[in-house]
Amino acid sequence: MTFFTVHPLETARAERPLSNYTYLRNSTELVSVFYGAFLLRSPGRHVLVDTGCDAEHYAAGPLSPVEDVESLEQNLGRHGLTIQDIDAVILTHLHFDHAAFLHLFRHCPKFVQEKEWQSARHPHPYFSRYYVPRFSQDSEFQLIDGDRVLYPGLEVLLVSGHSAGSQAVVVETSEGRTAISGFCCLAQNFDKNGFAVPGIHEDFQQAYDSMIKLMKRADMIYANHSREPVRL
After folding, report:
1. How many CB atoms lie within 10 A of CB 45?
2. Quick one: how many helices (H) and strands (E) in the chain?
3. Sheet with 45-49, edge to edge strand ranges
4. Digit-coded pLDDT (tens) for 102-130
5. Distance CA 166, CA 183 (A)
């Protein structure tokens, strides 16, 4: 069996109300929010989940500012890698803070759900500013329709709700099946005493069902905006 290791790469952070992420809950608490990518490593393969953002690129979206932490190149350098060492990029979705550095990866395949690609081209007016066309317009994507094994030990799962075509990434690790959520949430969303769907969602019921689906398929989950995983 092929095992991966999972490494959060923090490019930016901000302090936000927890209720931005836990729908109708935690109205008074503030929390530090992670912005970045996740490096997946297996023998002979380096896969990046999302590309992260920095303060400058984040400002193109509709939300309040973030502060820079470390560039994507510096993050990869800590693991002895460069941009060119990345073999593939998997986009959980195409919101601006997840796709800002796509232009750095013209050398490798980039995977996204077809539903997400269509939604990014024709977004609902309410969510239109979450997609910044210039971040992805020059990228060629390999489109996926639903759940699919991409590599030995790595599969993607369609987890619609946060956006039309959000996808989670699940890898086999020495600690069990580990997922990157694919939708914008925090570790607190998976609290067994306070389970909460993402605060930003296009379809509440789909978002709820997708969380249940992912929790059934993984032993451990990295929420897209938290550095530390949640063991289920």
Report:
1. 16
2. 5, 13
3. 67-68, 5-17, 30-42, 45-49, 88-90, 110-113, 142-144
4. 999 999 999 999 999 999 999 999 999 99
5. 6
Task: Measure Cα distances from 155 to 30, 60, 185 in Å.
Answer: 33, 31, 20
Which residues are within 8 A (CB) of 56 and not within 5 positions of it... i.e. 6 or more apart? Answer: none
Tell me the helix, strand and coil percentages in the chain, rounded to 5: 25, 30, 45
Question: Quick one: tokens of 31?
Answer: 């929390």
Dihedral sign, CA of 67, 116, 84, 224?
A: positive
- pLDDT > 80? residue 194: no
Handedness of CA 160, 202, 30, 100 (dihedral sign): positive
Single pTM value for the model: 0.97
Q: Which amino acid is at 205?
A: Q
The rounded distance, in Å, linking the Cα atoms of 121 and 113 is 13
Rounded CA-CA distance 48/39 in Å is 5
Strands 88-90 and 110-113: what pairing? parallel
Supply 79's token pair: 């693991």
Residue 6 has pLDDT above 90, yes or no: yes
Query: In the numeric block, which tokens belong to residue 57?
Result: 């690129």
Residue whose C-alpha is closest to residue 34's, from 73, 66, 71: 66
Reduced to 3 states (helix: H, G, I; strand: E, B; else coil), residue 145 is coil
Q: How far apart are CA 111 and CA 130, in angstroms?
A: 19
User: What number of CA atoms fall less than 13 Å from residue 218's CA on the CB side?
Assistant: 29
